[in-house]
Write a structure and sequence with these properties.
Length: about 625
């Protein structure tokens, strides 16, 4: 067990308070786990069929699992699956689950756009007409003589078709450099349909179907590509159409954004559909008045995890924290309601909220929680449901226990809102100044820092240390998800943070008034990073794999992060993970993903838990790529 749990100053006193209040939180449960399952860590256990669960012996297992009554002598599963098949199957199923989560989120946004276009919703409409028209042109939708709702309906239907399309090629793939599209096609990993790749991955990993580890991993990459260049890109683009394309915006971050004197509502999860309505509802005059009548100074809406990032990017709404902060928000005793939708929501929240007065409200028909009140969301009544939830939170204000109240002070200022469009606007209308700065060596390269928190690593430490090291070496860092929130809490998402950057990077960011670390949004918004990378590659007439660029997920934990890593690698990007995936038991799968993958797709994985060493590894790759480009 690590002795230090977090570098987040707003979280530290609340971890102590949880202990004092006798509330079990994530680090307590992590400690109770003891050592993780040794077979599981190596990826050599299989429970895909009921002849098992099977587990294989391995030289790196502890002695008591190799010799004696608890040992296994098996080097194959009952069906005959070997180390490579089992490890590749397990990893590929993780990719399919991650791709499914991102893509189902994308489908929900597309469905909301369809309902909004048909005027069957309450509260939703087309916000960014320019983006609507750009996407309509991309999907070859005739727009002449049609109003925005007709166009939006056709676009929503065309995009919903991407999930099960019989075209055999996702539309957004055309955004990638032509050489990359050809490479995917030649390798047989060009994604054909979003749902199709996920379903085929599940089919192939059923007992007795695809048993060749290379074949499994290649389909894993295709499935991941259907996420990055498919489901996630759909989620991002259509959220922009509905709610607006982000522009630079100032905000505040950490658990100190909760306000002792206000009704605090925390939105947590991923989809912006309900949270956008809540953002409207907290400003509804009758509800603001009700909050005053109930004795509060007002209503304070803030966010957790990627729902936070969605609201932050478009509205500047304050961010309470990232993945490991979710229980601690309730431990403040100041949260009247935590409203959750889907993904990365700990099942423990109901238990924790019972120890305080917090109402945990689940809203998605797909995600129900023990000890939560379920108020099902319906786009047709979006605004009314949001008002109902806000009212419940206000009426819960009086139930606070003043003796259990403790809100940290000193939230940190931050700047966010860097969509691809906002970056281009900040650069004066094109990517050329950025490309010139890269050519001149003022900016050595670009690194995408993404992914989660994980109690195996001191919260935020690796995100922050790695980012600091990279900007010092004149690398522009672009971030999403919990990584962006981690660095925001550390003050790296402020224009003043250029003082921590190398001279070259500083010389570019300072006159533009932008931070050296750009917040590009939620995890589905990694698709924005793909768009920027593809645009730079297209501008230079090269492939993405030729760019001085890399990715890192230093504290990853979710299956979505596995899918993200896989589509980054399949897009040609060197990707460093802070923790190994469960494949170590198969030397062949390890070699494929960290070695020969580069020969296939131009990108590969590396694993390094030391953030400074990981940054150094990335700098070496960036220098090599620069050499390759002759810059
Ligand atoms: O999708 S970074 S812990 S919140 S999975 Fe989850 Fe990981 Fe955070 Fe956003 Ni992404």
């Amino acid at each position: 067990m690590i002795s230090e749990k977090t570098i987040d100053e707003s979280a530290k006193p609340l971890i102590d308070k949880a202990k004092k209040d006798k509330v079990e939180i994530v680090w307590d449960r992590f400690e109770k786990q003891g050592n993780n399952c040794d077979f599981g860590k190596l990826g050599i256990c299989c429970k895909i069929c009921n002849m098992g669960p099977c587990r294989l012996t391995h030289p790196s297992l502890p002695l008591h699992l190799r010799v004696g009554p608890y040992a296994t002598k098996a080097i194959k599963g009952v069906c005959g699956a070997n180390y490579d098949t089992i490890a590749a199957r397990n990893l590929s199923r993780g990719i399919a689950a991650g791709a499914a989560a991102h893509s189902d989120h994308g489908r929900d946004i597309a469905h909301t756009l369809l309902l909004a276009a048909e005027k069957k919703t309450s509260g939703y409409d087309i916000n960014d007409e320019k983006k609507l028209m750009t996407l309509a042109a991309e999907f070859e939708i005739e727009t002449a003589g049609k109003d925005k709702h007709e166009i939006a309906k056709e676009l929503a239907l065309a995009i919903l078709d991407e999930f099960g399309t019989i075209k055999n090629r996702l539309q957004f793939i055309k955004r990638a450099p032509r050489v990359r599209q050809e490479l995917w096609n030649d390798l047989g990993i060009l994604p054909r349909g979003i749902d199709r790749e996920i379903v085929e991955m599940m089919h192939r990993t059923h007992i007795g179907v695809d048993n060749d580890y290379t074949s499994l991993i290649l389909q894993g990459l295709r499935t991941a590509l259907s996420d990055g260049w498919g489901g996630s890109m759909v989620a991002t683009e259509l959220s922009d159409v509905l709610f607006g394309t982000p522009k630079p915006v100032m905000s505040k971050v950490n658990l100190g954004v909760l306000d002792e004197k206000m009704v605090n509502i925390v939105v947590h999860g991923h989809e912006p559909i309900l949270s956008e309505m809540l953002a409207e509802a907290v400003e509804y005059p009758e509800l603001v008045e009700l909050a005053r009548i109930e004795g509060a100074d007002g209503i304070n809406l803030c966010g957790m995890c990627c729902t936070a990032n969605e609201l932050l990017m478009r509205r500047g709404i304050h961010v309470a924290g990232n993945f490991l902060n979710q229980e601690l928000a309730i431990v403040t005793g100041a949260v009247e309601a935590m409203v959750v939708d889907v993904q990365c929501i700990m099942p423990s929240l109901g238990e924790v909220s019972k120890c305080y007065h917090t109402l945990l409200i689940s809203t998605s028909p797909k995600a129900k929680f023990p000890n939560a009140e379920h108020i099902e969301f319906d786009e047709a009544r979006g605004f009314d449901i949001a008002k109902e939830i806000v009212k419940l939170a206000i009426l819960n204000f009086k139930n606070r226990n003043p003796n259990r109240l403790s809100v940290p002070s000193n939230p940190v200022n931050m700047m966010a809102g860097f969509s691809a469009e906002a970056i281009i606007a900040a650069l004066g209308g094109s990517l050329t100044p950025l490309i010139d700065a890269i050519k001149e060596g003022k900016i050595m390269g670009i690194v995408a820092m993404v992914g989660c928190n994980n109690p195996k690593i001191v919260q935020d430490k690796n995100h922050v240390e790695m980012t600091k090291s990279l900007i010092k070496n004149n690398v522009l860092v672009v971030e999403t998800g919990c990584s962006a929130i981690a660095c925001a809490k550390a003050g790296l998402l402020l224009p003043d943070a250029v003082d921590m950057a190398g001279e070259g990077l500083r010389s570019i960011c300072k006159p533009l008034g932008i931070p050296p670390v750009l917040h590009m949004g939620s995890c589905v918004d990694i698709s924005r990073i793909l768009v920027v990378a593809a645009s730079i590659a297209n501008e230079l007439g090269v492939d993405i794999s030729d760019l001085p660029a890399a990715a890192a997920a230093p504290e990853w934990m979710s299956e979505k992060a596995i899918s993200i890593g896989a589509y980054a690698v399949a897009s040609g990007v060197y990707t460093v993970l802070g923790l190994p995936p469960a494949i170590i038991g198969s030397s062949k799968v390890v070699e494929l993903l960290t070695g020969s993958a580069e020969n296939y797709v131009g990108g590969k994985f590396a694993v390094e838990s030391d953030p400074i060493k990981a940054a150094k590894m990335i700098m070496e790759v960036i220098k090599d790529k620069r050499k390759g480009l002759g810059i």
